[in-house]
Amino acid sequence: RGRFTLLSGSLDKTIQVWDTCDGTGATLWKGLRVNDLRVSQSGDTVVAVCADQRIVVLNLGYDDVTGALGLAETYQEYFEPGKVSSLYLAANGSLALLYCDDGSIYCWDVFEQKIVASFTGHRSGHFVIRPCFGGHDEAFVAAGSEDSKVYIWHRSGGTKPIAVLFGHTGTVNAVAWNPMDPQMLVSVSDDHTVVIWGKDEDDDDDDDGASSLLTALPPPPSPAAVVSSSGNPSDDSSGPPPA
């Protein structure tokens, strides 16, 4: 309501709200240690992955009388496959990508409270990987991998990825699709580079976008397409998944 706010989850078992104008904060929810959280694009749903293999979904809104921002818990669900260390929420807030400590990736229906797809073929299990939805209508899932590659699947899942991108020399920790350009994907790696992936200029336009994101700009990555970290190389920054 006229101000910008930031939500944060914490090891102290709280979700805090922060006023980005004056830096003041307040506790909106308390219950479990929060490993990761996301807010829906509409701003009314918060999904958090917590300790004890819990997924917590909350409604975010303002009190009609006081105008104070608050969280109301919708449900907690025990996630049977394992502990979730990272989370990505679809733009409409209905689907979430869950990355587990054992390296498994699942698509979770937030409203139906069930797994609707899983994704295999990548190599993971030692570090936290952050997958994402993307492409036209968020029809694809992308994820980094400990074998230095980026894997892409159809959102419906499957045992094999539809594409594997080569451009890094270290673990690929996170990927992000450009929300304004479904043909642009960015990946970051422990090799201290950011690689921008885009449409192959030799490809004809297609309807589903499946072939439009398979080429680095250009291969091998050039200084124009790669942002390298400055300073001396450091140890692997991924670190193990949180205990």
TrEMBL record:
WD repeats lie at residues 1-19, 165-197. Pfam families: WD40. Residues 224-243 have a biased composition (Low complexity). Keywords: Repeat, WD repeat. This is Anaphase-promoting complex subunit 4 WD40 domain-containing protein. It comes from Octactis speculum. Residues 200-209 have a biased composition (Acidic residues). Residues 198-243 are annotated as: Disordered. It comes from the Eukaryota. The keyword Cytoplasm does not apply.
